[in-house]
Specification:
Layout: E1 2-6, H1 9-26, E2 31-34, H2 41-54, E3 62-65, E4 67-69, H3 80-89, E5 99-100, H4 109-122, E6 128-131, E7 153-156, H5 159-165, E8 178-181, H6 184-188, E9 192-197, H7 203-211, E10 229-234, H8 235-238, H9 244-260
Parallel strand pairs: 1-10, 2-3, 2-6, 3-5, 6-9, 9-10
Antiparallel strand pairs: 4-8, 7-8
The structure holds 2-amino-2-deoxy-6-O-phosphono-alpha-D-glucopyranose.
2-amino-2-deoxy-6-O-phosphono-alpha-D-glucopyranose (GLP) is lined by residues 35-39, 66-67, 132-134, 140-141, 161, 165.
Length: 269
């Protein structure tokens, strides 16, 4: 894993946007895997800015979101489809038919997972997957004990996840307890993974994910098995990393290398 420690969440967003911009400019028909939650909001704002001010072009890009709640329609204010439309898709020039979010209201929810897997395969697979991490170690909605080879399917959310995400729902509002999510196996099939985490509330999760033992009990540790993961964190989220000094040292050497080579040379299918 490549671990990049940025001074604050704004720099995390800028660094992630640099990676995505470089991906899109090198492969304009890139397939991006996208995440919801508070963490990527700054990244999406920066991508919108680069589209508006520098013409970053999304017309060839296809996107697959990680997950969606079951039991609320796509146009519900708390659906992940609504989140993506508002926070990224509507303000950029992506073709809306090229944006996919798992179907949380499918007639037979058990069919929706395999259909989503097929769609991902039909586009040629995900080039770059953006991820955040839950405080219980979930990626997407792959809660503790999810199979490390799992594919898109329905998951029941843990009490901790329900509590963490309750801030988005008003007290008398229905909060779904089920979600459809790409599996850990689906995520690991992406060609490159960009994991973002910010704030001290994520420090234990980041420590476990990067330095803990691989275990289905902490799904994010599965990323250790992928050959191309970049973890970008701020000082708060990095605060419990044992080898923090080492990652910073590696980062400095990397920056020197980047000055010599164009990062776009490293993007391929
Ligand atoms: C949700 C999403 C995850 C996200 C996580 C963290 O549960 N399903 O994809 O990574 O929350 O969210 P936040 O960024 O708000 O901390």
């Amino acid at each position: 894993m490549e671990v990049i420690i940025a001074s604050d969440q704004d720099i995390v967003a800028l660094k992630c946007a640099d990676i995505i911009e470089s991906q899109i400019k090198t492969l304009p028909d890139s397939v991006l895997g996208l995440a919801t939650g508070s963490t990527p909001v700054g990244l999406y704002k920066e991508l919108i800015k680069r589209h508006r001010e520098h013409g970053l072009d999304f017309t060839g890009v296809r996107t697959f979101n990680l997950d969606e709640y079951i039991g609320i329609p796509a146009n519900h204010p708390q659906s992940y489809r609504t989140f993506m439309n508002q926070n990224l898709f509507d303000p950029i020039n992506i073709i809306s038919e090229n944006t996919y979010v798992p179907d949380g209201m499918g007639e037979n929810p058990l069919d929706s997972g395999p259909l989503y897997e097929k769609k991902i395969k039909d586009t040629g697979g995900i080039d770059l997957q953006v991820l955040g991490v839950g405080t219980d170690g979930h990626i997407g909605f792959n809660e503790p004990t999810s199979s490390l080879q799992s594919k898109t399917r329905i998951k029941t959310l843990t009490p901790q996840t329900l509590e963490d995400n309750s801030r988005f729902f008003s007290e008398d509002e229905f909060q779904p307890k089920l979600a459809i999510t790409m599996g850990i196996g689906t995520i690991l099939e992406s060609r490159r993974i960009l994991m973002m985490a910010t704030g001290e509330s994520k420090a234990s999760a980041v420590r476990e994910m990067v330095e803990g033992s691989i275990s289905a009990f902490f799904p994010a540790t599965a990323l250790q098995m992928h050959e191309r993961v970049t973890v970008i964190v701020d000082e708060g989220a990095a605060s419990k990393l044992e080898l923090k000094g080492y990652y910073k040292f590696v980062g400095k050497l990397q920056d020197d290398l980047i000055k010599k080579h164009r990062p776009s040379d490293w993007i391929s299918r």
